[in-house]
Amino acid sequence: MSTGSGNFLLVPIPEYPGLDCVPNKNVKIVVLGASNVGKTALIVRFLTKRFIGDYEANTGALYSRKINLEGEQVSLQVQDTPCVSLQDDAEGLYCQEQINRSIYWADGYVLVFSITDMHSYRTIQPLYEHVRRIHPSGNIPIILVGNKSDLLRARQVPTDEGQALAAELGGHYFEASARENHEGVQAAFLHLCQEVSRALGGVNGEKRRGGLHLVRPKSPNMQELKRRFRQVLSSRGKSTTAV
Ligand SMILES: Nc1nc2c(ncn2[C@@H]2O[C@H](COP(=O)(O)OP(=O)(O)OP(=O)(O)O)[C@@H](O)[C@H]2O)c(=O)[nH]1
Questions:
Q1: What is the ipTM of this complex?
Q2: pLDDT for 41-96, tens place per residue?
Q3: Which UniProt keywords apply (predicted)?
Q4: Which residue CA neighbors atom 12 of ligand 1 most closely?
Q5: How far is the CA of 24 from the CAs of 70, 124, 183, 204, 242, in angstroms?
Q6: Distance 147 CA to ligand 1 centre (A)
Q7: Following DSSP, what letter does each residue of the chain receive, concatenated?
Q8: Is there a contact between 81 and 101 (Cβ–Cβ < 8 Å)?
């Protein structure tokens, strides 16, 4: 069974990492979904075990940490993204260029909707097709996350609809609550990390797309990282779950 590392600090990605301390394998995942579904909350919950109530407008932060996957040290990068939205005809997506670059860059995809928001659920299929257009061939490791499972009374998306959609897209479905539960969030992210790690195969998995990778998305600047780090520290007193 995989476990996360003990270090739950948000760590900026070194631009020029020292080669001697870099794990062989680099797992890159991107978190995608409609507005207000909890993308940032899920990432912060996974990386810090904590829930931070309110966030400033998303800046597309990139986080990194080392994790242990099935006994192997792996470098994990998680890209947060601004929201996507359906076009008026509900066929296509409004998707910023920054998001397209992140989709191209990533190896694995967390597609998030809120169980309290049917509209966010309807965004998932076009979003997946969009990812498919960018990666037309090969296996795409994805998970589907129905977030805000603590808000059961406001549920608009039944569990079986989430499961059915995930099966159609070829991924696993997780219902999670970034607010209430670290374990569920961790299980979902680690599942995807394992899928990606296996898909990458050997050393650094260079890899299935024949070296077509774009330069990774721009890291958040240091001010932004410091601000988010302070947010995490100051939330200690407010956290809703024991760590
Ligand atoms: N009840 C509940 N609220 C949540 C949960 N996750 C996030 N929220 C709240 O939902 C709101 C949106 O969370 P964010 O993490 O900013 O969502 P986002 O998808 O990154 O939003 P955008 O920046 O619009 O793309 C915030 O007020 C969070 O506190 C959850 O699991 N349960």
A1: 0.99
A2: 999 899 888 887 666 655 678 888 899 888 888 999 999 998 888 876 656 777 78
A3: GTP-binding, Hydrolase, Nucleotide-binding
A4: 36
A5: 14, 33, 27, 5, 33
A6: 9
A7: --B--S--S-BPPPSS--GGGS-SEEEEEEEEESTTSSHHHHHHHHHHS---S--PSP---EEEEEEEETTEEEEEEEE-----EE-TTSSSEE--HHHHHHHHH-SEEEEEEETT-HHHHHTHHHHHHHHHHHS-SS---EEEEEE-TT-GGG--S-HHHHHHHHHHHTSEEEE--TTT-HHHHHHHHHHHHHHHHHHH-SGGG--TTTT-PPPPPPPPPHHHHHHHHHHHHHGGGT-SS--
A8: no
pLDDT confidence tier of residue 184, bands split at 50, 70 and 90:
very high
Instruction: Write the residue with the smallest CA distance to atom 8 of ligand 1.
Output: 38
CA of 41 from ligand 1 middle (Å) equals 6
57 Cα nearest atom in ligand 1: 23
Mean pLDDT of the chain: 79
